[in-house]
Write a structure and sequence with these properties.
Radius of gyration: 21 Å
Helix content: 40-55%
Bound molecules: pyridoxal-5'-phosphate
Number of helices: 14
Number of domains: 2
Order of helices and strands: HHEHHEHEHEHEHEHEEHHHEHEEEH
Shape: globular
Number of strands: 12
CATH class of the largest domain: Alpha Beta
Largest sheet: 7 strands, mixed
CATH topology of the largest domain: Aspartate Aminotransferase, domain 2
C-alpha cells in the first residue's frame, strides 16, 4: 500500500464537511443551483469589506522593492506591529510585534502552536463539540486530542475539564465564538477555567497553555463581548485569522499572538517562527501581510449574519427544531430528532438540503447548519426543513 495506513484511515473517516460539500456539487449538477440548499461549509458568502480592495490596489500599485521576496519567518515588521497594536486594544494587555507570528490562516496558526508545544503523547484538551480538524492538527505534531463534553447549553463544563487535566495535558484549547455551536463562552466561565489551569499547572510542575482559537471573535451578535484570554490567564496564546471577519479564507492570512507574560514566552516565539518555516508555510503571504497591516478595524457587516441567523432560527423553531440560539459565528447546531443523526441528515438530503452530522464534531445526535449563505438559500430551504421534521416525527 502506497499511502500510509494512518493517513488512509484519516481519508476514510475524514472530513465529513468536505464530503457533504462534494455531495452538494453532485446534486447541483442533477437539480440545478437554485434547487440545492448547501449549508455544509463555513465559506463566508459576504464579500470582503470595500477597504480591502482599496488597500490591495494601493499595495500593488506602490510596488515596493522586495514586495514578493522572502522575509523573516515570523512576518513583516509592519504587519506584526499593526497586529500587536490591535491585539493590545482588544485584549487589554500590552503586546508588541515581537509577540506576533503572521501565519497562513488560523489552521497555520494552530499547527505552529502544536509543533512548538507538543512532545509525543502530550494531550490537547478541548470541549466537544469542536472544530473537526483539531484532532488531525494535534496528531500532526504527535499530540492526542482529548474531548470533554460541554454542558447541555454548550457552555464550558469547567469542573469536568479540570478533572480531565492530567500530567500529559499541555494545551487547553478553546474556540469562542464556537464552531459548530455559535456559543460565546462567558468571561466568568473563562475566569473559572483560568483558575483551574493555574491549579493544574502547579500540580504538574509546568504550564498548561490556554490556546484560544478565535477566528470568529468579531462575529459576535448584539454587541456581545468575547472575553480576553490574555487578561484571564498568563500562559495564553491566540490563534486566529481573517478568513471570517474579512471574508478572506482563500488568502490564508492569520496570526499567533503570545501573551508576553506566558511561561517561556521568548523560547516559544523562537519555536513558533521556526515551525512556520519548517512546516512549509515559510512565511504568510507577503501581499496579504501588507494589506492587513493597513486595514485597521475593518470587518464584514456582522448585522447581515445576525439577520440570517434570525431568519433561519425563526423558521426552524416554527418547524419544531430544538437548538440553542447562536450568539456569534455563523453556525447553528440543532438536535437531531433521531439519536443517529445520520438518518436525519439523509432525510434532509432528500430535500436537497446539505448539513454536516454532529459526529464529525464529536457530538453525535446533532447536526451543523452553516448559514453563511445567500438569504434565498435560507428561505428556499425552510419548507424542506419543515417537511423533513414532519417525516421524522411520523
Ligand atoms: C474554529 C475554527 N478554527 C480554525 C479554522 C481554520 O481557519 P483558517 O481558514 O483561517 O485556517 C476554522 C475554519 O473554518 C474554524 O472554524
Amino acid at each position: 500500500m502506497a499511502v500510509a495506513r494512518k493517513m488512509k484511515g484519516f481519508v476514510e473517516n475524514g472530513s465529513m464537511i468536505r464530503k457533504m460539500f462534494e455531495e452538494g456539487a453532485r446534486l447541483r449538477k442533477i437539480h440545478g443551483d437554485d434547487k440545492v440548499f448547501d449549508f455544509s461549509l463555513g465559506n463566508p458568502n459576504l464579500p470582503p469589506p470595500p477597504e480591502f480592495k482599496e488597500r490591495l490596489r494601493a499595495v500593488v500599485e506602490a510596488d515596493e522593492p522586495g514586495l514578493h521576496a522572502y522575509m523573516p519567518n515570523a512576518g513583516l515588521e509592519e504587519a506584526r506591529a499593526a497586529i500587536a497594536s490591535r491585539v493590545s486594544a482588544e485584549q487589554g494587555v500590552a503586546v508588541e510585534g515581537r509577540h506576533v507570528v503572521v501565519t497562513c490562516g488560523a489552521a497555520g496558526a494552530l499547527n505552529i502552536i502544536f509543533k512548538a508545544l507538543l512532545d509525543p503523547g502530550d494531550e490537547v484538551l478541548v470541549s466537544s463539540p469542536y472544530f473537526v480538524e483539531y484532532g488531525f492538527m494535534a496528531d500532526n505534531h504527535g499530540g492526542v486530542l482529548k474531548a470533554v463534553p460541554t454542558l447541555g447549553d454548550f457552555s464550558l463544563d469547567v469542573p469536568a475539564l479540570e478533572a480531565a487535566m492530567g500530567p500529559r495535558t499541555k494545551v487547553m484549547l478553546v474556540n469562542t465564538p464556537n464552531n459548530p455551536t455559535g456559543r460565546i463562552y462567558s468571561a466568568e466561565s473563562l475566569a473559572r477555567l483560568a483558575a483551574a489551569l493555574e491549579r493544574k499547572s502547579r500540580e504538574r510542575g509546568g504550564a498548561i497553555y490556554l490556546v484560544s482559537d478565535e477566528p470568529y471573535r468579531k462575529l459576535a451578535y448584539g454587541g456581545a463581548e468575547v472575553a480576553s484570554p490574555f487578561a484571564s490567564y498568563s500562559s495564553s496564546i491566540i490563534a486566529t485569522s481573517h478568513s471570517k471577519d474579512l471574508s478572506l479564507p482563500g488568502e490564508r492570512i492569520g496570526f499567533v499572538a503570545v501573551n508576553p507574560a506566558a511561561d517561556d514566552a521568548g523560547d516559544l516565539m523562537g519555536a513558533l517562527s521556526l515551525a512556520n518555516r519548517i512546516l512549509g508555510y515559510v512565511n504568510a503571504p507577503s501581499l496579504m501581510q501588507r494589506v492587513i497591516a493597513g486595514l485597521g478595524e475593518a470587518c464584514v457587516d456582522v448585522a447581515l449574519y445576525e439577520r440570517k441567523r434570525d431568519a433561519l432560527a425563526a423558521g426552524l423553531r416554527a418547524a419544531g427544531y430544538d437548538f440553542a440560539m447562536p450568539e456569534g459565528a455563523f453556525y447553528l447546531f440543532p438536535k437531531s430528532p433521531f439519536a443517529d443523526e445520520g438518518t436525519f441528515v439523509e432525510l434532509l438530503k432528500e430535500e436537497n438540503i446539505l448539513v454536516v452530522p454532529g459526529s464529525g464534531f464529536g457530538a453525535p445526535g446533532y447536526f451543523r447548519i452553516a448559514y453563511c449563505v445567500d438569504d434565498k438559500v435560507i428561505s428556499g430551504a425552510l419548507p424542506g426543513f419543515e417537511r423533513a421534521m414532519r417525516k421524522a416525527k411520523g
